[in-house]
Write a structure and sequence with these properties.
The chain has a single domain, classed as Rossmann fold (3-Layer(aba) Sandwich), CATH 3.40.50.720. Helix content is about 35%, strand content about 15%. The chain has five helices and seven strands; from the N terminus they run αβαββββαβαβα.
Length: about 140
């Protein structure tokens, strides 16, 4: 069952340290949610781990082409992808060694995929769907 309880959402945001952002946008469109929200997360003390196949650097961070290429475990994988791409990303996440899997997969506002969510949850990964991580970060993490 996807996380919907406000206390659980707050706890996820407060305890996170590293967030991989799949589908991050570069500085060419700073107002795009896939750029402005990761920047907000970074400004609130979260380490952003950008994931995009064609960008080299964004927000001062090296960009990895896939989640499998990220060399460290992240707490949250934040998905800025269309619903049709979610299943493939869930497969990528489930293919990670267990010790490198994130605790949470967060699908941004407007993004839901019940099948992928069920598979991730069956593997012990918590799932948040159709909610903006930026809103919850602003609400539950003080500005640094």
């Amino acid at each position: 069952m996807p996380v919907e309880n406000e206390e659980e959402l707050a706890a996820i945001v407060r305890s996170a340290k590293r967030v991989a952002v799949i589908g991050i946008k570069d500085d060419s469109d700073p107002m795009a949610p896939a750029h402005s929200i990761p920047k907000l997360l970074q400004d609130r003390g979260l380490r952003i781990v950008p994931v995009h196949p064609t960008i080299a650097k964004v927000l001062g961070e090296t960009v990895y082409p896939t989640i499998g290429a990220v060399p460290e475990r992240v707490d949250i994988v934040d998905l800025f992808r269309r619903p049709g791409a979610i299943e493939a990303h869930a497969e990528e996440i489930l293919a990670l060694p267990e010790e490198r899997r994130p605790a949470v997969v967060w699908m941004q506002t407007g993004i839901r995929h019940d099948g992928a969510a069920a598979r991730l949850e069956a593997a012990g990964i918590r799932v948040v769907m159709d909610r903006c991580l930026g809103v919850y970060t602003s609400r539950y993490r003080p500005a640094s």
